Structure formats: structure tokens, C-alpha cells
Amino acid sequence: MTASWTSCPDLVACLLLCATTALSQDFQLQPLNSTVLRGFDARFNATVQGKWEVMTWHVKGLLVLSVSNRVFFNVTSSSPQFSARPCTNGNVNCVAFTIHNVTRSQAGPIVCSVLGHYEFKTAQLQVEESGTVSIMGGNVTAVQDQQVAFQCMTSDWFPAPNISWSLNGEPASGSLFNTSNVPDGDVFNSTSVLSFQAVSNATVACWGTVSTLPNPISSSSFLAVVPKPPDWTVLIAVVVSFGSAGLLVLLIFGIVFCCRRRKEKKPNYQDEMSKRVRTQSQVSSVSAAGQGQGQVNAGYVLDGQTNAAPSQHSDCGFSQRNGQEARQWLWLQTTLPGTRGDDRQDTPVMERELRVVGEWRGMQPRRSRSVDIGMAAWLDRRLERRLDRRLERRLDRRLERRLDRRRVIIVNENNMP
């Protein structure tokens, strides 16, 4: 018999493997991975088939609880935080191990072992932690169609939280916000920014959560949208454009009008001479109708020019003869025939003005003809106006004298026998 067992080593190995597998299947631990939120309870169930006497539980390598099943079910715990009980009343083959008020320090391997021919079982415990959520800045007021941004800050979370946004209770698109996580020791802090275009009033909420959190933690803010003020840019641009065009047109018309007026008022030497000739003709006709005949003093020379040759006082291209004729004509105006002494009371003033004209026309050297003609025309117009007024006064006085003489003649004729 012994020889037969010795001659079959493969059969022995197969039997031992089957026995070991059978024994290992008599002991199970569930769940093998558990994730709970800090402050909640973590529970593991150990199921043993067959008779067992002692069961122990280790948390991160430390023995925290033992269960004895020799006489009756007896639990020995190192802390009230750890407890064990049968899964159902009277069924000691299933033991429920519970860690109350789990902390982050207890996260790690949970080992259950049964005394006897049972293997130990290991499960993993993970502990999550929730922190705070807040929207920075509070309520926001924005103009319609303005781009607005909300910033959400989370702190003291483990692991990094899952952050989402909602607008008026509706989830916001992921393209509208971005989130960044920053580790701070054994926790995480996160920042999320939501940007969108303000259309109408809205309630904006930021949500933070982890897988074990029953209800996400949120923070909300209210967005108040005010109507967009009217855009006057286009109207102002149109008004400015038309106003500028109008001012430009007015400026052009003004320039053209001034040029025409200046051109119309521009003195013409020939016209001035024609005026003088006509005036001289009128004076000659008046003089012929008077009592005496006046003579033109052709030998009269203005003061200060007796020793100067005419060629010395002439400008380039300006006619000396025209200047002489103008002086003789002006002298004729001041020496009208048939006038009395009181009619010539302004003769010194006229002589002085004639002297100015003569000096201007004869003694200004090296002056352009346009300037000479303009100044001479101005002086001539001034003298002409004064002469016209004096001529009217003289003609009135002469007419009165003639009428007086006519009356005397009529009276004498009536008185004759």
C-alpha cells in the first residue's frame, strides 16, 4: 500500500491541491474593495463554512477586533469604533465587521483570518473626503449680450472633486467652463471658471461631488441682466459725415463767393480813368452853364516836386502821362470856375490830398504796378466821393443864386414904367 502511494507522486500532489482549494473556498470576504465617505461606516462580511472557533480582524496591520465561537459568540474590540456581529440572528457562519465613523487614517488593507485550516482574506478600504464649494464675487449684474464669467473655488477635497455648473437648473455645457485641480498636502483644491454671454436673468450654481457623496455640495449666484443701451454709434457717424460734408460745401461756397466779390471789387485802371473822364465832362458842362469860364492850370505842379523830373518818380511800366492827367484833373475839381471864396474853404485839404496822390503816383520807387494801381484807385475813389458831395453843394448854391438873380430881374421888369 505504501509502495503504491510512493509510486504515484502526481496523484498525491493532485489530491493535496484539491484539498487546499476546498478548504480555501470554505472562507470568503466581501467586499474586497470598499470606498466610503469620511464620517460614514465601513462594513465587511466574512463567511466561514464549517465549524470555526476564533476570527481576527486587522486594520492597516493592527489587530482591532477578535471573535470567539467556542461556547457562544463573544467579541473583543480594541475600540468602540470597531464592532462585529452575526449577519443574521443565530447564523454564526457569517460575521459582519463594521468600522464606525471612518477616518482617512484607516484607509488601507483590512485583513480577516480564521484560526484553523483557513487562509486569511484581505480587502481594501478607501476613504473619500468632501470639502467646501463657493462662487467668488456673489451676485453679478451685466448688460445684455455682455460676456460674463463666474469663478468657483473648492477646497479640502479628497480625491479631486468632480465640478459641474447649472443655469436655471439646467446642466451647463462642458465647453462653457474649465477646471483645474491643485494638490494641497493630502487634499485637493480646485478652481473652475464658467464663461457665457448674458441673455436674460439666470441662477448660476456650481456643484462639487465625489463618488461616495450622497448629495453634491453646491453654491449659487444670481445673474441680473439689464437692457443694452441704444447704440448711437451709427447715427453719430451719419450725422458727423453729413455735417462735415455740409460744412465743406459751405466753405467752398464761401471761398468762391469771396473770390468773386474780390474780383468784382478789384480796381481796374482803365475803368477809373473812364470815370474821371466822365466826371470831368460833367464838370465842364456845369462850368459852361455858369457865369464865368474856369481855366485849367496846366502849369500847376504839386509841392515838393518842382525840381524832380517826371522820369525820376515813375515806376516800372507805369505811365507818367496818366499820373499827370490825374493830377491836372484833380486840380481842376478844386478850382471850379465861378465859385466864390466860401465855396473853396476846403481847398487846403484838397491840395494836401492831391499832394498825397501825386507823391504816391510819382515818388514811390520800385513798387509793383498792381500795388500802385490798387493804392491809387483807393485814393481816387475816396477823393471822388468827397468831390461828388462838394460838387452837389456847389451846384445847389449856384442854382439858388441863379434863381435869386432871376427873381431880381423879374421884379425890376415889373417895376419899370
Structure description:
By secondary structure, this protein is of the alpha+beta class. The chain is 37% helix and 31% strand. The protein has seven helices and 19 strands. It has helices at 2-6, 9-25, 233-265, 269-289, 320-334, 347-363, 369-415; strands at 27-30, 33-37, 42-48, 54-59, 62-68, 74-77, 82-88, 91-99, 108-114, 121-128, 132-136, 140-143, 147-157, 162-167, 170-171, 177-184, 187-197, 202-209, 217-226. The strands form four sheets. A six-stranded mixed β-sheet has the order 2-10-9-4-5-6, with no helix packed on it. Strands 12-19-18-14-15 form a five-stranded mixed β-sheet, with no helix packed on it. A four-stranded antiparallel β-sheet has the order 1-3-8-7. It starts with a helix and ends with a helix.
SSE blueprint and pairings:
Elements: H1 2-6, H2 9-25, E1 27-30, E2 33-37, E3 42-48, E4 54-59, E5 62-68, E6 74-77, E7 82-88, E8 91-99, E9 108-114, E10 121-128, E11 132-136, E12 140-143, E13 147-157, E14 162-167, E15 170-171, E16 177-184, E17 187-197, E18 202-209, E19 217-226, H3 233-265, H4 269-289, H5 320-334, H6 347-363, H7 369-415
Parallel strand pairs: 2-10, 12-19
Antiparallel strand pairs: 1-3, 3-8, 4-5, 4-9, 5-6, 7-8, 9-10, 11-13, 13-17, 14-15, 14-18, 16-17, 18-19
Helix pairs in contact: 4-5, 4-7, 5-6, 6-7
Quick synopsis:
The chain is an alpha+beta fold. The protein has helices spanning 2-6, 9-25, 233-265, 269-289, 320-334, 347-363, 369-415; strands spanning 27-30, 33-37, 42-48, 54-59, 62-68, 74-77, 82-88, 91-99, 108-114, 121-128, 132-136, 140-143, 147-157, 162-167, 170-171, 177-184, 187-197, 202-209, 217-226. It is 37% helix and 31% strand.
